[in-house]
Amino acid sequence: MKKMVLGIDIGGTNSRLGFVDENGCVLARTRMATQAQEPPDRLWARLWDEAQRLWCGLLSLPGERMDWVGIGIGAPNAHRGRGSIEHPPNLGWEIVPFLDLVSEKTEIPAWLANDANVAALAEGRFGAAKGVDNFLLITLGTGLGSGLVVNGSMVEGASGFAAEMGHIPLVDKGRQCGCGRQGCLETYASATGLKRTLLELWAERGGNSALLSMPPMNLTAEQIGRAAEAGDELACEALTITAAHLARGLVTVIHLLSPAAILIGGGLSLAGEGLMAPLRRDVERGLMAVFCGSCQIRLAGIPEADLGIMGAGALAFQGLEFRSAAKD
Amino acid sequence: MKKMVLGIDIGGTNSRLGFVDENGCVLARTRMATQAQEPPDRLWARLWDEAQRLWCGLLSLPGERMDWVGIGIGAPNAHRGRGSIEHPPNLGWEIVPFLDLVSEKTEIPAWLANDANVAALAEGRFGAAKGVDNFLLITLGTGLGSGLVVNGSMVEGASGFAAEMGHIPLVDKGRQCGCGRQGCLETYASATGLKRTLLELWAERGGNSALLSMPPMNLTAEQIGRAAEAGDELACEALTITAAHLARGLVTVIHLLSPAAILIGGGLSLAGEGLMAPLRRDVERGLMAVFCGSCQIRLAGIPEADLGIMGAGALAFQGLEFRSAAKD
């Protein structure tokens, strides 16, 4: 009997769900609009209907019989201990006891945790950090998301909301951040941060760059990376500066936690070696001798489309294991 | 039968040893010069002789019979996994397999770990962080030492040398640090950092202060704290600036790890409310809303003279518990 869990990834715009096996394979998946303005019980009703449709489809396939043993859910601002989603950015909710909604529909055991933390669980169980006890996953997109594993366990801290690396103070009186404070790491080290740096550089220096022929809103880190490879000076310099800022953040984490690996995912990671080469160099330069060579900086392993589902699946499998260990 | 462990704290100048019971009481203690120029096996021979002398003294006392069940050792640059002390600052040693020296003299089980980490163990087992699963201990003296406990376990990371908070990069192109790099947190947030700030302020502004009548070498954080309480402007401002720098370091740790408590010990903590009041204020101001009020900042609980011995004792008791749990 093949054990399967349902993994649900609730996002600000879209939510994804799929069934995951013990090897991390996603055997059926789908996506729907979150419709942030709707109440959360409506979203859960739609997710549940879709999940049952997917499950019936799976059962009708030939092959090994399957058993649906758990449900994992990843969401922004989710609190694992309380089973709630609390004031999620981009969703108009207050504090939602989401696991209570789940248990009204089903007796299948369910777990809920923060989306960035479950992404780290996915990399640790199925991806580029398999078997690694101490690692950091950062996702560089609009902002900087992060998930931390220390001594083999997810770090959530006393508040339940740890691993907000995007908001560590990097530059005194620096750039305005969406969180209301100034100089947070993510205002420099993210896909958006890279664009801000590119435009700031051009504002200071002027000059020519093919990138200026595109609307900044649509510009991607991948395009800036390709321009740098083609020799565009503005692009090269913006990537070098972004790498230097991110390196300071990583040096801080390495001195505090000495992870064996730091995985980098999200849109900015698509900038490629124009980012990764100066990043690795600046990190090594910034470390005390005792840490040199102790931390591998590499690209995240799981494609973004499956990361949330696999993370939620990893959360459910971990929950089931703890439960069975506690029974022994 | 009362279970006792020997706790040994190896320092650059002096080493301390004592017998610790399960409640953290130090029942016999002594201190000796480390004599850093001697080979480590000579130091161990002297420590072992002293330990036996102390033990004989304890056995001759009336009362409950005692059983010597373990040995714990804290030392600078100690690597727990390898049982070695590696290139310790202030000691002229290379890599010393210290636990091998111990096992040549005795079959009593022994554990070795970094001095700052065992200090955190002491606070977690016997002191101001009893029962707290996530906390940070920082010791502000000549430098900034730190020990971290996450999800109830000591953080040593992949290298075995984690929790070097004193060397996180705080100020870009900032003050020269003893580690060879620039702008490390401890060049600002330590007893020495406070003195550097005081003299820098005076160099910029001139003016009068009673503190300038003392040789800076001998000036203590406690004296600066008392001067601030008496209204000395230079002292007040130096403490405020030092608190602001330290606050940025603590805000970083809280965003990453969300500890329930941060304990502050060492000479700088004796500056009192002149430091602690602006520190607490600046930390709260620097946090994202979700972390506000989630972390208590308080003074460390164990007097410095016993901290190393009690930490080494806590390490031994923890080792014995793991061993007996593994046998079950």
Folded structure, characterized:
- In chain A, the strands form 3 sheets. Chain A has a 5-stranded mixed beta sheet. A 5-stranded mixed beta sheet of chain A has the order 11-10-9-12-13, covered by helices on one side.
- In chain A, strand 6 (84-86) and strand 7 (95-96) form a beta hairpin.
- By secondary structure, chain A is of the alpha/beta class.
- In chain A, helix 6 packs across helix 7.
- Chain A has 8 helices and 13 strands.
- In chain A, 38% of the residues lie in helices and 22% in strands.
- Chain A binds chain B through residues 77, 133-134, 148, 150-151, 153, 155-165, 167-169, 171-172, 179, 181, 248, 251-253, 255-260, 286, 288, 290-291, 294-295, and chain B through 77, 133-134, 148, 150-151, 153, 155-165, 167-169, 171-172, 179, 181, 248, 251-253, 255-260, 286, 288, 290-291, 294-295.
Give descriptors for this structure.
globular, homodimer, 5-stranded mixed β-sheet, 38% helix, alpha/beta, 328 residues
Blueprint (SSEs and pairs):
The structure is a homodimer of 328-residue chains.
Chain A: E1 2-10, E2 14-21, E3 26-33, H1 40-59, E4 66-75, E5 78-79, E6 84-86, E7 95-96, H2 98-105, E8 110-114, H3 115-125, E9 135-140, E10 144-150, E11 153-154, H4 191-205, H5 221-229, H6 233-257, E12 261-265, H7 273-286, E13 296-299, H8 304-327
